[in-house]
Amino acid sequence: MEPPAANSTKRHRRLGLVLFAVFALAMVMGPGPGLRLVNPEPTAARESLLFLGLPVIYAWGLFWYGVQAAVVVTACLTIWKPSDD
Amino acid sequence: MDTAATTDLGLLPHFCLAGYLLFLLGIGLWGFSKRQAGEEDYYLAGRGQGWMLSSLTIMATFFSSAAMLGAPGMVYKEGVVFALFALNVPLSGAMIYVLGNRIRELGRTHGHVTPADLICNHYGSPVALRCLVALIGFLYAVPYVVIQIQAGGIISSQLFGGEHAFEIGACLLSLVTMLYIMIGGMRSVAWTDALQGTLLMGGMLLAGAAAVAALGGPSAFFEKVAELPRTSLSVPGTTGSFTPEKLFTLCIFGALGSMIQPAQWMRFYAAKSAKALRRSAVIFALGLTACFLFGVMLVGLGGQVLYPVAKPSADGAFEYQMQIDGQAVAVSEADLAKRLAKGGKPLPHPDVGAGPRDFDQIMVVVLKRHLPELLGPAGLLLATLVIIAIMAAAMSTADSNLHALSAVITRDIYAGILRPSASEKSRLWVGRGVIAAATLLALGMVFVSRSSESFDPIGMIMPMSLLAIAFSSQLLPVTFDVLFLKRGSRQGAIAGIVAGMLVVLMFSPLLAIITGSDSAAVGLFARLKQIADIGFCGVVVNVTVFALLSAVNRR
Q1: Residue B84, C-beta contacts closer than 8 angstroms, at least 6 positions apart
Q2: How far from B119 is each of A65, B114, B237, B482, B552, CA to CA, in Å?
Q3: Which in B36, B127, B175, B210 has the greatest CB count within 10 A?
Q4: What are A14-43's pLDDT values in tens digits?
Q5: pTM of the model
């Protein structure tokens, strides 16, 4: 059986990888190529430019900002903590 | 709405600005009274900054006139697409801990003061690499200081008007900043940054609120925004410059490049503990992004409604004003792309400015005209405070960069190469001389650019900032290697940085000056610039050369 410290390091490394992947996804989807998924076609109806009254591009940015913020807070509360001095 | 009506702010801005500048000088004197002997105290405030001071000084250094004037100016010009550039901020925040804490630990262990200390200590290159890292610091700091001084001039001319308001504002900002850095070093810079950081975070949110209120509240604001031209509400924006791929590379390299520039790097060294950087990272990532998305970006968007860049014509299509061969010409929506490709430049609403670079003035125009209209005397005071916050943004970035530049030139060039036996006292005096010389150089560049129609190396604030960040991005490959990989060689590091910098230089106005603005090379790099960020192009070449040469050296 592995000692608790080794287990904790392994868990942190796995969590670190997951957080990195989610953050990278937020970067690709928010201000990156993922924008093409919501960007209205030039000929699309004017309503397609909006989502809940907000410009769809802006709403998309707000959503991915939320994801980024959640990742940073989680990292701060978990994987960044043990290296504190 | 009568957008042409201007509000006279009276003598209030004069008194507020004078009080603010005197207070900054007071902090400079306070820093001087707290000084301890030695370079480490002058450049790093004794490596004892706690989380509150660290977070505010890192934010204030990051926040420049590019954030307060340039970003809303770009949203005003390009539309909502540029608001997404704010998503680079959480990445910068994460880097404060991921990169910053390792830099802090190594700096404390080995007594490093500048980025070159750490990098050259790792690769064992006392001259060539040190000169290159110092050159990158110079190429980042000088343009950044130049645009802050320019912003000081813009604010002054908007606030006070008059024939020489720009020049007086630019000189005043330079002089006061130069004085308090020279007097108090890092301690004064960090404490003035703390004041300026608080002021400008409040200013950003207040400016956003003012723009929303000026259009009748959140619902009315977004209803009116929904009627803007299609290009303002979609990707790639009015001029077609911001494709998702370009925006993506811009966010990645804008975030990383601005976090490893010398002034930030020295703030990591100056932090007291990992806890200080961890908390700074969270405050930065969450708070600052919110200030952008809910603050200044809304000013740009509201600006498009209040001061339209495109007027609807009788057939429902929009008509833009463009500068073509020095003349203002009306261009239909259908012809916009064709005219842009031929070198036409969009113009802002005449009440905002007359030239293509006047988009940056939207923030001051909205504040000055609409806050007093909405809130009366209280609005007058708030408008003045936010305009001073813009001044604070410019000064806090200028001071950090001048201070870092002084450390870089003194430690890396003067004491590291030219006079290794120089005493600490003489190094400190050389450092102060560098601050004065760099300030005068930057001020001179602002005046030359302003007085010449044909020579304009500065242009709009945002593109100039991005060029400076592209230079500092060239330190990314060696930084990641030194902190994490440890597989690169000295020769690879040197060759990689040189190659990356050459690529970035090709995108700068220098190429047009050398080869002529209509040369094939200028056309090629202009097309490349449409596809990806300049820093990204440089880093791709940099990494390739670095990896190949390091692999050859390992054999």
Answers
A1: A30, A31, A35, A57, A60, A61, B247, B251
A2: 33, 9, 40, 7, 21
A3: B210
A4: 999 999 999 999 999 999 999 999 998 777
A5: 0.87
Assign B413 to helix, strand or coil.
helix
Partner residue opposite A57 with nearest CB, options B84, B94, B97:
B84
Residue A60: closest C-alpha in chain B:
B84
Task: For residues B499 and B546, give the distance between their C-alpha atoms in angstroms, rounded to a whole number.
Answer: 9
Q: What's the pLDDT tens digit per position in B185-213?
A: 777 778 888 888 888 788 888 889 889 98
| Separation CA B14–CA B435 (nearest Å) | 27
For B28-76, write each residue's pLDDT tens digit. Answer: 788 777 777 677 777 777 788 888 888 888 988 887 767 788 889 999 9
Chain A interface includes B97 (CB < 8 A): yes
Our measurement of the distance from residue B97's CA atom to the centroid of its chain's CA atoms, rounded to an integer in Å, reads 21
Count Cβ atoms below 10 Å from residue B307 Cβ, excluding itself. Answer: 21
Residue B96 has pLDDT above 90, yes or no: yes
What DSSP letter does each residue of B345-374 carry, written as one string? EE---TTT-SSGGGGGGHHHHHHHHHHHHH
Most distant pair of Cα atoms in chain A: their distance: 63
**Chain B nearest-CA residue for A37:** B244
Kindly determine whether residue B275 and residue A54, on different chains, have CB atoms separated by under 8 Å.
no
Write down the pLDDT at residue B3. Answer: 41
B356 touches B323 (CB < 8 A)? yes
Of B267, B274, B273, B265, the closest CA to residue B117 belongs to: B265
Cβ-based neighbour number of residue B453 at 10 Å: 6
φ, ψ dihedrals at B37, nearest 5°: -65, 145
Give me the amino acid identity at B131.
Answer: C
Residues 6 or more apart in contact with residue B472 via CB below 8 angstroms = B136, B137, B139, B140, B257, B258, B260, B261, B262
Provide the 3-class DSSP secondary structure of residue B321. strand
Q: Does A52 touch chain B (CB under 8 A)?
A: no
